[in-house]
Amino acid sequence: MKISIITLFPEVFKPLVKTSILEKAQSAGKLKVELVDLRKFGIGRHKQVDDRVYGGGIGMILRIDVLDAAIKKVKSRLRRSKVILLTPQGETLNQKKVKELSKEKHLILICGKYEGVDERVRKLVDEELSIGDYVLSGGEVPAMVVLDSVSRLLPGVLKEEATQLESFSQNLLEPPQYTRPEDYKGMKVPKVLLSGNHGEIEKWRGEEAVNKTKERRPDLLKKR
Length: 224
Description:
Elements: E1 2-7, H1 14-17, H2 20-27, E2 32-37, E3 50-52, E4 60-62, H3 64-75, E5 82-92, H4 95-101, E6 106-111, E7 127-130, H5 140-151, H6 160-164, E8 183-184, E9 187-188, H7 198-216, H8 218-221
Parallel strand pairs: 1-2, 1-6, 5-6, 5-7
Antiparallel strand pairs: 3-4, 8-9
């Protein structure tokens, strides 16, 4: 898979793409990350990428001609691409959507600005995604969320069992997990986990996942 990120701040992504699972995915040839500097497509000597709002208003918004040029350039390198605008107005990202995106050949993520983009940009994209009902300074953090969540589901990046048992994978939260020490200030690891009885352990984990979901996210159980 290839993920292209169109942004005014490509430098903020560089530490992320060189660490942990993202680095592993790229080293294994499972993922290619392309950082596209939107400023290079700017207009005139000063490479202008935004402008004032018609009709009046506070702040500046990204120009459609600049974004169109950037999208066309990136799309020209691969035939099949899905273009996504990161915006608070988009569909809220969830694990189901992440799984869908992980099956794509090429994702193009557009990072908006605080004040937004020209409305006509929406005609240039395939989807709009949000990571929650709040406003950020730009689309860079949401793009990082998409990049990280999608890359870990690519075949061969993680063991299949690791992603199957995660929170939200079956509309359940993960069951409790423990490590050493066995007893810390009176807080003990449940005996069943020390029993060596794998059947009982799996049964316990299944029950605890349901109980935790019922307590913290009962809405997920309605989707099962």
